[in-house]
Amino acid sequence: MTIVTASAPLDEMSGAPDVRVVAVPAGHPYVQRVTHAAGIELLPDPPVAGAAEGVWWPPVALDPDWIRQHADRADILHVHFGTESFPAGHLTACIDAAHAAGWAVVFTVHDLTHPQLAEQGPYAAQLDELIPRVDALVTLTAGAAAEVHERWGREAVVLPHPAILREGETPSVVAVGEELRIGMHLKDLRPGTDGPTSARTLIAAVERLRDEGHHAVAEIRMHRSVRDHDARDEVRAAVAGHPYAVLVEQGRLPDAALNTALGGLDVCVLPYRFGSHSGWLELCWDLGVPVAVPDVGHFADQHDDDSIARFHPGDVKTLAAALRTLLSGDEAARPGSVARADLIEARRDSRREQDAGTAQAHAALYRRLRSERAS
Question: Does the pTM exceed 0.90?
Fold first, then answer.
């Protein structure tokens, strides 16, 4: 792991920001947390014409004309999400415009395969535009950094994902029951999610656990509005009438309700067929919920503890083994128990220290790059 040490703001006496950052997008909670350091000014997302307040896509700031018009307002362009909105060559033009304006450009490699896209070719081409040309790269795990180096020959700074559970936010207490609740959220059945196979695999794994004497049940959640209606119907058929499985079809839950739903699980299973990193996994970690992750991408690298176990997508045997491991692990605290509450607080304390260091590391990186561009 590459560590960036933070330096003091250049204008400490006045309290004025010494580095101005255009982040794409600025309003995303991840971005706001990693830029929350003294001396860093995060410029707000420019409004999107015709869109509701708070909608940042397609990102207005990721445009060469916008960059040229605002050249004197920033020092750094940091790209996180939203590149898929643009055609080939657009990102190269943005980097060139930023460099002409005197800005350094940073790209955080959240996704090496894009979970929202069925066809990966255009996104892979965008990575080929961005990764060789930007001034610095950041990613979330050592595994992703190794992949970046193998594919493009570049070093990426590894800075972990910040907390998702907000400071002061306490999940509702969920009473401990006899049943072991194994949950899976299919959301809107985006391309990176294999809903039917994941549902059938989970139900079969739960049946194996029950045959071994575990009082396990499968709780599968899915949005009412989905992208793939055929897949939705297959999920419904997989669960229909099963004695140890329930399907909850719902709208997008508010944060507090989502935290309560996740906090009631003994284990959460990620249903992804491809992807790189998972914010959902991070929320589960904050809530003390162990996670079974598919052995694709770099999900298993996000935390180096007993809270994660891997399985092969679609394979009942390896999923059942992962569930056994997580249900018997050192951190298998039951929902609503004192042990689960203690685990949540311990992880909250750990996150405070880690997130402060991550924000300082981003600030130090920005200052170094700005200095190099100015020299």
Answer: yes
Dig out the tokens for 201 from the structure: 């695999």
pLDDT in tens, 109-132: 999 999 999 999 999 999 999 999
Does 179 have pLDDT greater than 90?
Answer: yes
Q: How far is Cα 7 from Cα 97, in angstroms, rounded to an integer?
A: 28
pLDDT of 9 over the 70 cut: no
> Which residues, 6 or more positions from 292, have their beta carbon under 8 angstroms from its beta carbon?
267, 268, 269, 270, 308, 309, 310, 311, 319, 322, 323, 326
Do 277 and 111 form a contact (C-beta atoms < 8 A)?
A: yes
Cβ–Cβ < 8 Å for 110, 80: yes
Q: What is the mean pLDDT of residues 163-174?
A: 87
Which residues have a Cβ under 8 Å from the Cβ of 93 and sit 6 or more positions away?
64
Residue whose C-alpha is closest to residue 26's, from 82, 100, 104, 99: 82
Q: Which of 4-8, 33-37, 70-74 has the lowest mean pLDDT?
A: 4-8
Give the Cα separation of 129 and 107 in Å (integer).
11
Q: Give the per-residue pLDDT at 118.
A: 95
Contacts of 301 (CB under 8 A, 6+ apart): 141, 142, 143, 144
Q: Which residue has the tokens 């929202």?
A: 116
What sign does the dihedral 312-314-320-325 (CA atoms) show? positive
- Whether the Cβ atoms of residue 202 and residue 181 lie closer than 8 Å to each other: no
| Beta strands 216-223; 180-185: pairing state | parallel
SS (H, E, C) 40-77: EEECCCCCCCCCCCCCCCCCCCCCHHHHHHCHHHCCEE
Instruction: Indicate if the pLDDT at residue 207 is higher than 80.
Output: yes
* Distance separating alpha carbons of residues 264 and 268, to the nearest angstrom: 10
Q: What is the rounded CA–CA span in Å between residue 345 and residue 351? A: 10
